[in-house]
Amino acid sequence: MLIITADDFGIDKQATDSILFSYKTGRITSISAMVFMQDSVRAAEMASGLDVEIGFHLNLTLPLSGSNANSKLLEHQHVVASFLLSSKFTQIIYNPLLRKSFDFVFKTQEEEFHRLYKSAPAFYNGHHHMHLCANIIFGKYLPREIPIRRTFTFGWGEKDPFNIIYRRLLDHYISRRYISSDAFYSLAPVEELEKINKIISLSEIKNIELMVHPNRKEEFQFLQSDYFSKLIRSAEIGSFASLKASSKK
User: Fold this and answer.
1) CATH number, domain containing residue 135
2) What is each CA distance from 106 to 80, 110, 142, 151, in whole angstroms?
């Protein structure tokens, strides 16, 4: 099964519009939405009534550009972002001194998602994949009954050994405690056609999530191409709802 998720819904007008266009042309199956960003409110209004899964795209690293983000939220967001972006290793370190800030940012963003979309998220993921940072995982913020995104899937030799081992340990933890796909890939770079074909083929035997960013010109053009259209017509297109249903069997 193949799930095609468009990230960054609501980050700005271009992202919102390109994602909605990709949905209407049948190129994506799911949307992950950001809150307290420049176009978050309009994005939720535009999505109202659409028959599409919308998940919560947690943002711990980008400045909040929405006019409705209050000073307290901005302060805690800055503290969290400064920590996570200070080193490539900080996301694997649990910082008990920042528990209050992580708690406030996560819960405030989650509540805003509920307010805007008038429903619970269909799934959870994060900008820069920080929903899997140590403070979120060990803080047990992610609900076990709703699908979450796993780490990028890499084979041996594609990353350094420590990176691969860490990802596999984290994926093992996720698969035992949460609902998730069997593998997770990015559409980019779109020039790697052999890789993209292998991902689509792999979805015949595994549940695959493919992340796309229609607001990026090269990805939008590829998504709208006849080549991609033919590729996904050969695949079994699925959803996080079906992933959740299969996990209960």
Assistant:
1) 3.20.20.370
2) 10, 6, 10, 19
158 Cβ contact list (under 8 Å, min separation 6):
164
By residue range, what is the domain housing residue 6?
2-247
Report the domain count for the chain: 1
Q: Are 9 and 216 in contact (CB under 8 A)?
A: no
Q: b vs e for 165-175, b when ≥16 Cβ sit within 10 Å of the residue's Cβ?
A: eebeebbeebe
Name the strand (E) or helix (H) holding 56: strand 53-58
pTM, two decimal places: 0.95
Residues 6+ apart with CB under 8 A from 13: 38, 39, 42
> How many other C-beta atoms can be found within 10 angstroms of the C-beta atom of residue 67?
9
Instruction: Report how far residue 38's alpha carbon sits from residue 40's, in angstroms, rounded to the nearest whole number.
Output: 6
Q: What residues are paired with 4 via a beta bridge?
A: 210
**For residue range 111-166, what is the model confidence (pLDDT) as tens digits?**
999 999 999 999 999 999 999 999 999 999 999 999 999 999 987 777 788 888 99
What separation, in Å, do the N-terminal and C-terminal C-alpha atoms of the chain show? 16
Q: How far apart are CA 211 and CA 14, in angstroms?
A: 18
CB-CB contact of 243 with 147 (8 Å): yes
**Residue 219 to residues 61, 82, 214, Cα–Cα distance (Å):** 23, 30, 6
